[in-house]
What we know:
The chain is mainly α. It is 66% helix and 0% strand. α1 packs across α2 (36-48), α6 (107-119) packs antiparallel against α7 and α9 runs antiparallel to α10. The N and C termini lie far apart (42 Å).
Amino acid sequence: PLQSPSEAVETVTGIGELPGTLGSAGTRKAALAGDARAVYQLATQAADGPGSRDPKLALRLFERAAVAGLGPAQFRLGNMFEKGIGTNRDPALAKVWYGRAAERGNAKAMHNLAVLYAEGAGGKPDYATATDWFRRAAEHGVRDSQYNLAILLGRGLGAPADLGQSYRWFAIAAAQGDEDAGRKRDEVASRLSSGDLAAA
């Protein structure tokens, strides 16, 4: 089947030496031949085990697969830069790689990117961009994004205050089992007129 352009992945180059203990011979061969998914598989093993973990190798392999355009690798690379795993913490690079994964539809990357913008990682908070990414992740069903979006909309951070939308997103998060969101939903409801509440 043809891949959609957003899923098109280039051949991976320059992955360097691979330890003989990492993955199966077939996976190593595929990775050395440039298969981004095989490279990602080896990177995941190097990052998460079982066996010996090698965060620096994982970083290098995730980076090669990420550069080739593999969304999950872009997400993992962003995460490593955010947390400083196998490298120094680098919020700016975390944003770059989360951004690329988010553009490919990775909902967790959308959420993490929004958090970095809201926290002002590497600068001042950018609530407008955070609101945009929380909304996109919320629409993909990410409960924490639904909750955070409701908070920002309720406070008028990043977008004009909109209690009706705030109520709506708290209600959606609450329906997914977030008890805190249920309490916040009821607080917002008490601040809405009966007409606005019915509309929400």
